[in-house]
Write a structure and sequence with these properties.
Strands 3-4-2-1-6-5 form a six-stranded mixed β-sheet. It is an alpha+beta fold. Helix 1 (about 1-35) packs antiparallel against helix 2 (about 45-75). The protein folds into two domains: about 1-75; about 90-150, no CATH class. The chain is built from three helices and six strands.
């Protein structure tokens, strides 16, 4: 199970790196557009265009900041060893899905199986935290029984 956790960790890192790269590229493009925008006789149009480019840059900086926070969270996880209780970095196998408590990165495919990368602060992450194999919990009217934790 430790090998699966390592692979899921790598997939999460790749997910964050792609978000960081996309945000960085969008920032560069918005700044280039802002620099290329030359002052025309219609001053208001120029100012509006520059303001829109600045807002786009600010949005992308916020996305980059969020991606950096995700990378910090990933760097704090342990991918070695197994856990007895569900905690950040745990792989939790339930009768209603497989969950990797790390960051919210959606569904990850690995060796033909689906794993849901969820944040420990998400509703399901909060429900699972501290539970162990055999424990049950209910979220949104759906029952889950933990089969194993790694």
């Amino acid at each position: 199970m430790s090998e699966i956790k390592e692979q899921l960790y790598k997939l999460c890192v790749a997910y964050v790196q792609s978000r960081m790269q996309a945000a960085g590229q969008a920032i560069a493009e918005a700044q280039q557009a802002q620099n290329d925008d030359t002052k025309s006789s219609a001053g208001d149009k120029y100012e509006t265009g520059r303001e829109m480019a600045q807002q786009e840059t600010n949005r992308n900086f916020a996305q980059l900041n969020e991606a950096n926070k995700l990378m910090v969270a990933l760097n704090q996880l342990s991918v070695k060893g197994t856990a007895i209780k569900a905690e950040p970095g745990s792989l939790v196998i339930t009768d209603n899905g497989n969950f990797y408590l790390a960051i919210s990165a959606g569904t990850l495919q690995l060796a033909g199986k689906s794993y849901h990368a969820v944040s420990p602060e998400s509703p399901i992450g909060i429900k699972m935290k501290g539970l162990q194999a055999g424990d049950e919990f209910i979220l949104n009217g759906k029952g889950y029984q933990i089969q194993s934790i790694g």
